[in-house]
Automatic annotation (TrEMBL):
<dbReference type="InterPro" id="IPR036847">
    <property type="entry name" value="RimP_C_sf"/>
</dbReference>
<dbReference type="GO" id="GO:0000028">
    <property type="term" value="P:ribosomal small subunit assembly"/>
</dbReference>
<protein>
    <recommendedName>
        <fullName>Ribosome maturation factor RimP</fullName>
    </recommendedName>
</protein>
<dbReference type="InterPro" id="IPR028989">
    <property type="entry name" value="RimP_N"/>
</dbReference>
<feature type="domain" description="Ribosome maturation factor RimP N-terminal">
    <location>
        <begin position="52"/>
        <end position="124"/>
    </location>
</feature>
<comment type="function">
    <text>Required for maturation of 30S ribosomal subunits.</text>
</comment>
<dbReference type="InterPro" id="IPR028998">
    <property type="entry name" value="RimP_C"/>
</dbReference>
<feature type="region of interest" description="Disordered">
    <location>
        <begin position="210"/>
        <end position="233"/>
    </location>
</feature>
<keyword id="KW-0690">Ribosome biogenesis</keyword>
<dbReference type="Pfam" id="PF17384">
    <property type="entry name" value="DUF150_C"/>
</dbReference>
<feature type="compositionally biased region" description="Basic residues">
    <location>
        <begin position="210"/>
        <end position="219"/>
    </location>
</feature>
<keyword id="KW-0963">Cytoplasm</keyword>
<dbReference type="Pfam" id="PF02576">
    <property type="entry name" value="RimP_N"/>
</dbReference>
<comment type="similarity">
    <text>Belongs to the RimP family.</text>
</comment>
<dbReference type="GO" id="GO:0006412">
    <property type="term" value="P:translation"/>
</dbReference>
<dbReference type="InterPro" id="IPR003728">
    <property type="entry name" value="Ribosome_maturation_RimP"/>
</dbReference>
<feature type="domain" description="Ribosome maturation factor RimP C-terminal">
    <location>
        <begin position="127"/>
        <end position="197"/>
    </location>
</feature>
Length: 233
């Protein structure tokens, strides 16, 4: 699905798992939101764009995952977002795109025309919050650190243990002298992404199904009081 405009074209992408249709407003606890703030943030022009779009996204009941401006097919501005339960629909992406576009037009951080892509983070998602690591504990991640950790900056392995300050990674491959695990602090992580595996696909499907069921149940619970009010004496 693509929309075109004078300044930009827009597309809306979803993960292969599929999600629930329909729009539902989600209450966001500001205390919890602050505690689950992103540990990996943009720099340069991406940071300027994120500062513009994130308040809009949060105000609509979603959370920002990542902003990235690239030179692919001209200029492409990719905005990844999701609901607090980790899902997002085509309709959600459309609403977000329509809300983000005016904000970008006002501040105009990008010179020239560009393609705006609003999407989900996908199954092999970027890991940008502490909760991402706990949510996907037991799965394989590829990451890069900003500083040397145990003599290196690049790692690949399974998330074994997650704490408040960091996590323990079971190495995928070991060089001579390496320990089987390495402790990585959150404040050292510069970039991280899940690696697509059969186990990840299976668990992503389960999480998506559970989120659909919970949202459907929550919607029915909200409708019940309105129906009961007609029976008051």
């Amino acid at each position: 699905m693509t929309e075109s405009g004078s300044r930009r074209s827009r597309s809306f992408l979803l993960p292969a798992t599929g999600t629930v249709g329909g729009r539902q407003t989600t209450y966001r606890d500001p205390v919890l939101e602050k505690a689950d703030d992103r540990i990996i943030r943009e720099t340069g022009i991406d940071a300027r764009i994120a500062a513009i779009v994130e308040p809009v996204i949060v105000g609509m009941g979603f959370r920002l995952v990542r902003v990235r401006l690239s030179g692919q097919n001209g200029l492409t501005l990719q905005v990844m977002a999701e609901r607090p339960d980790g899902t997002i629909t085509v309709e959600d992406c459309e609403e977000l795109s329509r809300a983000i576009s005016p904000a970008l037009d006002v501040d105009d951080p990008v010179d020239g025309a560009y393609h705006l892509e609003v999407s989900s983070p996908g199954i092999d998602r970027p890991m940008v919050r502490r909760s991402d690591f706990s949510d996907w504990q037991g799965h394989v991640v590829k990451l890069e650190t900003a500083i040397l950790v145990d003599g290196r900056k690049r790692f690949k392995g399974k998330i074994a243990v997650v704490s408040e300050d960091g996590f323990t990674l079971e190495r995928d491959q070991m060089s001579y002298g390496d320990e089987p695990t390495v402790d990585i602090p959150f404040d050292a992580v510069a970039d991280a992404r899940l690696i697509l595996t059969d186990d990840l696909i299976r668990d992503a499907l389960k999480k998506d199904k559970a989120a659909r069921k919970a949202r459907k149940k929550g919607g029915k619970a909200q409708e019940a009081p309105a129906g009961d009010s007609d029976n008051e004496d």
